[in-house]
Design brief:
homodimer, alpha/beta, 12 helices, 2 domains, Quinone Oxidoreductase, Chain A, domain 1, 329 residues, 15 strands
Amino acid sequence: MPKIVRFYETGSADVLKIEELPQTEPAEGEVRLKVEAIGLNRAEVMFRKGQYLEAPELPSRLGYEAAGIVDAVGPGTRDIDIGNRVSTIPAFSMGKYGVYGESAIVPYQAAAHYPDNLSAAEGASIWMQYLTAYGALVEIGQLKDRDSVVITAASSSVGLAAIQITKAAGALAIATTRGADKKQFLLDAGADRVIVTDDEDLVEKVMAGTSGKGANLIFDPVGGPLLEALADAASPGATIFEYGALSPAPTIFPLLTALQKGLIIRGYTLFEIVGDAKRFARAKQYVYAGLESGALSPVIDSTFPLEAIADAHRYMESNQQKGKIVVIV
Amino acid sequence: MPKIVRFYETGSADVLKIEELPQTEPAEGEVRLKVEAIGLNRAEVMFRKGQYLEAPELPSRLGYEAAGIVDAVGPGTRDIDIGNRVSTIPAFSMGKYGVYGESAIVPYQAAAHYPDNLSAAEGASIWMQYLTAYGALVEIGQLKDRDSVVITAASSSVGLAAIQITKAAGALAIATTRGADKKQFLLDAGADRVIVTDDEDLVEKVMAGTSGKGANLIFDPVGGPLLEALADAASPGATIFEYGALSPAPTIFPLLTALQKGLIIRGYTLFEIVGDAKRFARAKQYVYAGLESGALSPVIDSTFPLEAIADAHRYMESNQQKGKIVVIV
């Protein structure tokens, strides 16, 4: 029987249990993977804590991203066969389809081929990060070479994806990180400028880096009091994407600054992309082309065995990582 | 010497003083009006209190909208002559060009002809309200007949303009007002539904009025705690325009709702329209066509003489008015 990760109560990483559960068969429109690697996301930590957009029905599976080999297909699936090497795209309910385990069932549209030259660990590290950053910056933000982009929490996998996408467009990538220890890493990862927010004034540094104009695209998963500083660092007419809720503090809408500058502040998740067939198709095409050209290249911080899934979650919550945390199955 | 309204300190309506000041001549690019009527705006109350986007340099003039006859033109002006009947468009610094008084000087591009069949009081009641509502709903919001629009503070001149513009597009206009006393007035003004927020639950009523879908365009000058309710009443992908700051309470950004629904919450002022030549031209054309067809028709609540300018401000602050307050000079 395959080992599957579930939790019976929300809370710390301790709630994650590895259980042997009977093998199940894919239903209509579903496929089953023999999982080789699992890419971890902050969304799963939030879900485990009961703080995510979707609430778990306990006991609950979890997990959005796995790479593996298709070992069963349900009726009504297309373009996918047993033996295919695929990775999963977060286009489903995590509670219903969570992929943490040796076996995972997902809707067939959420299982995509990934380039042959990528390892399974890399295959499990592409969709969430690149689709999320692509959707905001390119599809909605219409990123162009003259743009200045502020990327907060830049050492996260999505942050690094945003740096790569910004540089691929020829735009200016301004990365922020709390401590000085990740500064050189972010410069090496392609950031044009890195602001260490524990030591430097974000607004002043963004203005200095943009000839006083401010950034016209801002990509932020933090929220909370940071939003006011980001609004101050924005140029007139700028768009601020809020794509997470990492800050536990209330997020104040910077009303006067937003009025004065005509700022667009929008909530954003990749579901706006994967839930729209045309956008989804363009997004996949963009990611395939970027991986092919080398403009996009997933950064893996470290790997854990499945048995250490709770340690892997604890490590993510420590915020030490620089890139993707992957579980090898 | 013409009577001019100025204030020497920010504060209550008592600070407004009527002074006789020497006649001045228009400089390069400016024209002078013999003022016949002045349209009052909330912006002037905020400016008088020192709470507006622009801070006054004391002593300061104030006022955005006047109708009158051109009685002097400076060099470098075009398409405008002495004797023309014009009204002023808020496309200038209120502190520098404030129009409250018997004589006003404004940049020539801010003086526009208005239809012959409108009185001076009506001429002073068109630009702020229609350009503000048009810019948000039509130019940016791309208003279509299938849209559902929530209009808060709907009895204000801009709110009524938004109702007329929404109905002209064939869309659903849901107006909100605090007390039941203005409900019939708003229905008569064209609102499809009126929500009395002192007595009714805004979210429930908007959902009931939109078959559970929510409103996809929301036009709000209030901010503060209301924004959370408006986000709850919004449909997925909706745009919420915040175009004022009437609430003294902090405005919380509804982060989780914005993420779940992909909401766009943006600061907006008509300066986004009048500061862009193409948008400005389209906006004026829209207003002229609407006044011509009768789709747009300014609603005047009451008139005051210039001597009672402080009373007119007090009356605006009492929130009793239904439409525009005009000072006849």
